[in-house]
Write a structure and sequence with these properties.
Alpha/beta knot, alpha/beta, globular, 3-stranded parallel sheet
Length: 145
């Protein structure tokens, strides 16, 4: 990843403090040759991503066909997860998205936007939105309406 991507993610993660910790687990994408079946690679990648989800964690897949949420709705979801002390894993697939088998094993599917973002930028956008939602929950002035 470019340095600015790592710095952006780290900045928002650091701002969250102890109340909400973001842990980034990067899974190397399986290598694909020109003759390789893209669906097979996507399936393998999904299996690797699901294997990295902590046992008992609530899983949310990012998917272009997922449900879009306003910041207030994300804050409400975070609040519920905090109250239940639930661990949450948000799964970001590769450039080709997530396999259907991976998507079907997740509890929810979210879409960040109907726009297309560079794959690497998604982690920064997601970290910022989690920080913004936490700011809203804590009446912090970062979130303005």
């Amino acid at each position: 990843m470019p340095k600015w991507i790592d710095e952006g993610f780290s900045d928002y993660s650091r701002r969250l403090g102890r109340d909400c910790q973001l842990v980034l687990k990067e899974i190397p994408s399986p290598r694909k040759s020109k003759s390789e079946d893209a669906d097979r690679i996507k399936k393998l990648e999904g299996e690797l991503l699901l294997a990295a989800v902590p046992a008992g964690a609530y899983s949310v897949a990012l998917d272009e066909k997922g449900k879009m949420h306003a910041t207030k709705a994300i804050a409400a979801k975070l609040s519920g997860w905090f109250e239940s002390h639930r661990r949450v894993a948000i799964i970001i697939g590769g450039a080709d998205g997530l396999s259907q088998s991976c998507l079907s094993q997740c509890h929810e599917r979210w879409s960040l936007s109907s726009m297309t973002f560079p794959h690497s930028l998604v982690r920064v956008i997601l970290a910022e939105q989690i920080y913004r939602a936490c700011s809203l929950l804590n009446n912090h002035p970062y979130h303005r309406e």
